[in-house]
């Protein structure tokens, strides 16, 4: 495993574009810290400081930061599809196979890299969340601080699943730009299918079916936190109540898609004439 990971890291770090994109993908989550210190001047009458509103209290901080950090995943997605595009354009894929690397090891090297960077990103966001929470939160009991750290697990699984999808599209079309375009096509396709099911049945049934789709299932791992924040400010508003928790079956769905994408990537490579 470490041999394959080291091989892939060497390729990425020798590529200037990849290094820049990796750097950006790791730096952007730190903008959550800027969000916590943001002060909004309301028409000169008073200053609204987000950090003082209680939205960075434990345990909601885990939900908030993982949701925002996951929005920056597209930068590393470019790195993932570029890994495949460069292999074909630079002929390094064929050379690696000639040098003794099996097709299975080639796909595993990409997957290990995805897992590695997803893990590093998860560690970074956990440190950021802990620091912001310890500074702003009104609660400092250990039981409260770590009660919802399962959002970190969901964040990690979400990244691995999404990047595995990018890997599959990269293997499918061999070109970075087209692979990223397929992501938007899939997004539109999922909503078209949702509309058809909503028309045929009803919106509730259509949404339940849509939650099994690749992109939607990944999004559902970490639901938007804004409604939850509103619930804390207006507890009497029962219409604001919704299910924001991380569920094991949601993680299982994304893991199943991840396994399928890696398997399909391997099958594509195995059958393709290089």
TrEMBL record:
One of its GO terms (molecular function) is ABC-type transporter activity. Keywords: Membrane, Transmembrane, Transmembrane helix. GO terms for cellular component: plasma membrane. The keyword Cell wall biogenesis/degradation does not apply. The chain crosses the membrane at residues 20-40, 60-84, 111-136, 142-170, 177-199, 251-269. This is ABC-2 family transporter.
